[in-house]
Design brief:
It is built from nine helices and seven strands, in the order H-E-H-E-H-E-H-E-H-E-H-E-H-E-H-H. The protein is of the alpha/beta class. The chain has a single domain, classed as Aldolase class I (TIM Barrel), CATH 3.20.20.70. Strands 1-2-3-4-5-6-7 form a seven-stranded parallel β-sheet. Helix 3 links the parallel strand 2 and strand 3. The longest helix has 17 residues.
Length: 183
């Protein structure tokens, strides 16, 4: 659905699911992403990302370290990491991450063991610290974001927005995706 509506960056995130189930869906999704010239990022499952030749992997705070994933995947894969503090940002930057998923913006039911809520002020603070430390990495806002939040978040210096709940819970997800992509 997201691909058909025009999304060009898809993350497959399946928590507490058998690896074979993730692998099977990842293989199908990889083909669909290739057909629509979209990137596929696999959340957590580094081996699955390598096996299906996904474009990359996203690693949460309790997942495989970025350095280890880079050794397994090589330079041809995109590796992102979740950050909640500037210390997280610095650690991911030094480990060779290609992008950051910074959040959560607000409370979300899609994540267990939720880190402290950042909000707009948290994003501004982290982006300012990144500038001061000369850390240049794309930062994507994550966690509980609605369509109405997008303009204010982008003013903080955040470069991208990750959304799932707001789209999946929309009355018309296809129309919601199209509306987001035209903002």
């Amino acid at each position: 659905m997201a691909l058909e509506a025009g999304c060009k960056w898809i993350q497959l995130r399946m928590k507490d699911v058998a690896v074979e189930t993730v692998r099977q869906l990842a293989e199908e999704l990889k083909k669909a992403c290739e057909n629509r010239h979209a990137l596929l990022i696999i959340d957590d499952y580094v081996e699955v990302a390598r096996e299906v030749k996904a474009d990359g992997v996203h690693l949460g705070k309790n997942d495989m370290p970025i350095e280890e994933a880079r050794k397994l995947l090589g330079e041809g894969f995109i590796i992102g990491g979740t950050a909640n503090t500037f210390e997280d940002v610095k650690r991911h930057y030094e480990a060779g991450a290609d992008y950051l998923g910074i959040g959560p913006f607000r409370f979300t039911t899609t994540k267990k063991n939720l880190s402290p809520i950042l909000g707009l002020e948290g994003y501004r603070n982290i982006k300012q610290q990144m500038i001061e430390a000369d850390i240049i990495l794309p930062a994507v806002a994550i966690g509980g974001i609605t369509v109405e939040d997008i303009p204010a978040i982008l003013v903080t210096g955040i470069e991208g927005i990750a959304m799932s709940g707001a789209i999946l819970q929309a009355h018309d997800p296809d129309a919601e995706i199209k509306r987001i992509l035209t903002m």
